[in-house]
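Recap slide: CRAL-TRIO domain-containing protein, sequence and predicted structure.
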Amino acid sequence: MFRRKNQSHSEQDGEDKQHKVKELRASLGQLSGRSAQYCTDACLKRYLEARNWNVDKSKKMLEETLKWRSSFKPEEIRWHEVATEGETGKVYKANFHDRYGRTVLILRPGMQNTSALDNQMKHLVYLIENAIFNLPEGQEQMAWLIDFTGWSITNNVPVKSARETINILQNHYPERLAVAFLYSPPRIFEAFWKIVKYFMDPKTAQKVKFVYPKNKDSVELMKSYFDMDNLATEFGGTATLSYDHEEFSRQMAQDDVKAAKFWGLDKHAPGVNGYSAAEVAPEPESIALPATARA
């Protein structure tokens, strides 16, 4: 009886959420082009989840994203446009997934090699799109691994850059970040973090985990998320962290072609340098929002 009651409650909750999705879609009015392609049911669910299923707030958030995407055009970014930013491997997609099948982005702020914020954000957005495009079916989120090797107060990420990164991630890619590990950050980073955290909403801040190699709980946390044979020694694993810019560029060029086809842009994309990946993975209608997903 208790189980039936819980099942009934769960079914009712599911029906209520589906109704919210339909309500949000109706409130958006007639969409066309890329906006229509972007706004799948799975996408709408992420925006509703990010705003605690408040349709009005979700609508405002989604409309701001559609306006941003119309201006920024993330689906049109080509790898050759941002390749210079990636030469040092300061941000790249790992060649493994976490234990939950999530795409893993590795960030190494100590390897910053440019100073133009606009180009840095373009590079990051490209890789976020690519990470999402490469998610396995049934998975909607990614994990971030942030390596502080070489990081210092002299080459750190400016507050303005950190603020823009947070803005893009939490306002235009809701429910896409599952967890972000800050691995062995130096003590001086704590002061920087207090400033950065100010710009985060509580849900996003809860996903950020400080990890220290000599802390037993930190080690167990990493093991619970990653196969240590895949994880690089820089993150407490046994693998060797090696970024090959030429090989990575070849992979991105191949992904650009696939993404261009997904967006229907392949007819306009010369050569192999197509366009960046989509916000929603191929066949988005078949993707269900994980029950544990948060904003």
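The radius of gyration is 20 Å.
Residues 2-28 form the longest helix (27 residues).
(End of recap.)
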